[in-house]
Structures are given as C-alpha cells and as structure tokens.
Amino acid sequence: MSISLTKALEIVDAALAKGREMAFEPLTVAVLDAGGHLVALKREDRSGILRPDVAIGKAWGALGMGFGSRELGERAVKVPHFMNALMAASGGRFVPVAGGVLILSGGDVIGAVGISGDTSDNDEICCLAGIAAAGYVGQTGFRPPQ
Amino acid sequence: MSISLTKALEIVDAALAKGREMAFEPLTVAVLDAGGHLVALKREDRSGILRPDVAIGKAWGALGMGFGSRELGERAVKVPHFMNALMAASGGRFVPVAGGVLILSGGDVIGAVGISGDTSDNDEICCLAGIAAAGYVGQTGFRPPQ
Amino acid sequence: MSISLTKALEIVDAALAKGREMAFEPLTVAVLDAGGHLVALKREDRSGILRPDVAIGKAWGALGMGFGSRELGERAVKVPHFMNALMAASGGRFVPVAGGVLILSGGDVIGAVGISGDTSDNDEICCLAGIAAAGYVGQTGFRPPQ
Amino acid sequence: MSISLTKALEIVDAALAKGREMAFEPLTVAVLDAGGHLVALKREDRSGILRPDVAIGKAWGALGMGFGSRELGERAVKVPHFMNALMAASGGRFVPVAGGVLILSGGDVIGAVGISGDTSDNDEICCLAGIAAAGYVGQTGFRPPQ
C-alpha cells in the first residue's frame, strides 16, 4: 500500500499549519509515495527555489535507506564519504539532515514526508505534526518508535 | 511578480475538478513559478510514477521558451533536432507536447501549469480550466490570446 | 501493495524457462516494484552488457506512464518527440518497445517485468508467461485485459 | 572468464541464507561480472529503494579500482577528495564502504558481489559466505588473501 493523495494532503496541510502556529520560516512540504515519487507538494511564498529539491531529497533519502533522515544526518558526521556516495548514487536525491520522516501505517512504510525552510529540527517538528494529524506514525531514526 | 501558493492551489484544484467532471484518466498537476520552480503539485491515485516529471516538464518547457507547450509540440514535428537539443540542454526538464500553459496576469508571465495523465489535448483543457478559475489568462501557443 | 521477492522470482524463473523452451536468444529479466525499483534480476550467459538497462527501462517506462511498453512503442512511432522527452525526463530509464509488462493483482499495479534479449515480441511472450505462472495478470497496452 | 548466472545465483542465495541465519536486516545482494554489469540481483522485502544502487555501487567500486570496497572505505577516510572524484567519475556507481568483495577464481577476478542492508561489516560477512559457498575466493582489501 502507498499513501493516497487525500491522506498526503492532510499531512501537508497539518504540517504547514504547525509551521504557521510556531511562526517558523516559510516552508516547503513534500509527500512521496513508498517508491519515492511525489504525491503532493506545497511551497509557501518566499520559500527558496531549492527548497522543493531539499524537501524531496530528505524524504527520498529516508525511503532510500529505510530510516529517517535524522539518523542519516548523524551517520553523515561519522562516515561522510558514505553519505557522499549515496548522494552520487541517487543522482542528488539524498539530503541527510533531519526533516525527512518515514510514514508508517500498521508497521509498513507507505511513504515519507520531507520539509525544508526552517532549522532541520523545526522542519522535523512539522513533519511529525503532519503525520500524526493524518493518523499515521512517523519514524525519524533507525527504528520505528515503540 | 510570481504566483502565490494560494493562487497556485486554486489552479490545481480547479484543474483536478475539471478532470473529474470530464471523467479523464488520473491526472498529475504541477504549478511552477516564473522561475520554473515548483509551487504546488498534486498527483491523483493511480497516476503513473513519471507523471510528475512530465507535468513539470511541460510547464518548464513553456517557461523555458516563453510560449505554451502546444506550440512546442508543433515545432517538434518540424524541427525535432532542435527540440531534442532543448531536452538535453534543460537536463530533461523539457516536454514539448500540449498540456503546459503559461499563466498570464496583466500581460506578464507569473508562472505555468503542466498536466499529465490523459491525452495532451485533455490535459490542456484542465490547465485552462484551472487558470481561468484563478482569474488569470492561459497561453497555450506562441502569442498571448487576444 | 508491491510485489514480494518470492513472487518476483517466480516470474523471473518462469520467464527464463519459457525462453529456453522456445529456444530464444539469451535473456535478461528484471522485475521492478510498483515504485520502479529492482526486486530481482537475472541475466543469462552471453546476454549483452546493456541488456539489464534495457530490461529495466522497459519495465520502468511501463510503470512511468501506467501502461505496457508495447503501447509506448506504438506511440513512439506517432509522436517520437514526446517519447524522446520521456527518455530525457526519466534520466534514460525509459525504453518504449514491447517487452515491458505491468503486473496486476486484483486490478492494482504491483510492479512490472521487463525482458531484453530476443525480438521485442518474443521478449513480451516471456514476460506474460512469467506473470501468468505467478498467478498475476499482465498488461501490455493502454488498458488492462478484459 | 566472467562469472556465470548459475554461479552468481549460488553466491546470492548463500549470502541471503547467511543474512537470515544471522538475523540481519533485510538485504539487497548484487553480483556483477568482470565488466561491472549486473548478472543477478535480489532485494528482500522491506529493503530500501536505494539499496540496489548501493549494493551495485559497492561491487562496481571494487571492480573499478581492483580491490575490495573495505580498502576503499579506509582510503576514503585518508583521501576523501579522491574518493569523491571517483564517485563523480563513475557517474555515482562508486560506494566506498565495506560490503563489496571481488570474486577470484584461480587468481583471476571474475566478478564482484555487493550487499547493502545491515552494517557494512555484516554486509561483508554475507558477501564472503556467498563467495565461499560458490567455491571461489573473496578479496575484501588491497591484496588477494594468501
């Protein structure tokens, strides 16, 4: 199963609402299906022109390796050459910093959300808010939350 | 001036509503700003995994040359080598068939919408419906409509 | 739902058995999941070094547009510039000739199989034999078989 | 001489059996011939979508330089700019971490196996188990084992 457009939009809209509530910088929010393909994207006014690729890359990287991009960011500090290789292998669709979160339904990965615009920690807060609003579980690290 | 997220979403939603009204195949709709960068994208369930790139490529091609992708498609029949060169020059973000329409406001190009999913003629119908619903003028060819 | 490794291997092995039964040229068989990512691939001895990319490209193209690559091949004759654009947009993962067949389960696309090695018609015969052996339905054209 | 499909499958299946025996994470296993082209690949269910490219990249990198990817990983720590250049030069098919092992037969390199899914050390364990099961010698570093 992969995420539907209806549910993807619930995630995007709740993530953007969280960003406005917290007065974060303008955000770009992307939801990808389990295969790494765009289902929905919204870029707020004044969000930079690279933000869509960054948001997509965070989500894609999470799907690519099977764990959230926060974990990828921690590994990038320890083994930068490996993360560089993954950037190259993925054709640039791999952004290893927090803000790319797997979407779990019943233990299965059904997609991922990526956000770019504020700090990566704040981006992640909005990812999780969006996923929770849609009734799914978000995974930011190596293991699903218990 | 470039298109806002609010107006981009009006275009996307009206385009999708037109597609459902006409019982077209599942559609992917992308709105790009005047710089060719994504503002909003929605992919309906069962729309193929290359559709986002095709929708973006139609809109990007229109912005790239400054006229609607219907015109690009007609030129592709006459000068295919030129269009092939543009595909290569753009890194693959150039899809010269109908369904990529410039968004005009007061005579200025403020963005473009691209749609992929049904025949290119039908895709274009939805582009125009979306642009009209948002109160803008759509340009499918070489010259703005009079 | 996407195809499992177990079922993908049933398809690959039955396709290769068909090829040997028919005394076809050495084949390369690839099965992709619904997102266009490799699940299983086998290349027979003396099958050329580009064959993996061709087999993958046939299957990927089918998933990309949502119909079998036989249909894509027919369209490539009518609108070559469009197919060229899809090759570029997909980064070369788009091979519009017969031999890329969607795998349907209960009406849903759960993956695709691509074969390269003999004529494209013969490649397709093996795709269909493999899909049938695994208990699924193969779609070679624009519409699912009735 | 290059590895046959029959022997490549022996390696893949023994590597996957080792992974199940050790209760490793879901693995993707790729075997390339001496020319760096895929012979066989299997991706276990729940193995991430970038894993095929990572597994192929480890094996390709080993073939590319003529020694196992463990050695490449050690060099990447000392001369990261050189490894970055190799990633770029290879078009992204170069992943310098353990888990890409050359396959030697009578002292000749006849292919390479790459695995991605668990830690790189564990991936390498499965590479070596697969190669040994097929009756070949695996080379993880700069020199063939004595």
What this model shows, in words?
- The structure is a homotetramer of 146-residue chains.
- Chain A is α+β, with helices and mostly antiparallel strands and 146 residues long.
- Chain A has one domain: 2-Layer Sandwich (Beta-Lactamase).
- Chain A is 45% helix and 21% strand.
- Chain A has a five-stranded antiparallel β-sheet.
- In chain A, strand 1 and strand 2 (38-43) form a beta hairpin.
- In chain A, helix 1 crosses helix 5 (120-133) and helix 3 (69-78) packs across helix 4.
- The longest helix of chain A is centred in the first third of the chain and has 17 residues, at 5-21.
- The first copy, chain A, is globular and about 35 Å long.
- Chain A starts with a helix and ends in a 7-residue tail after the last strand.
- Chains in contact: A-B, A-C, A-D, B-C, C-D.
- The interface between A and D is medium-sized, with 20 and 27 residues.
- Strand 2 of chain C pairs antiparallel with strand 2 of chain D.
- Chains A, B, C, D: Pfam families: HbpS-like (PF03928).
- Chains A, B, C, D: InterPro entries: GlcG_carb_metab_protein, PduO/GlcC-like, PduO/GlcC-like_sf.
Give structural attributes.
homotetramer; alpha+beta; Beta-Lactamase; 5-stranded antiparallel beta sheet; 5 helices; 5 strands; 21% strand; globular; GlcG_carb_metab_protein (chains A, B, C, D); PduO/GlcC-like (chains A, B, C, D)
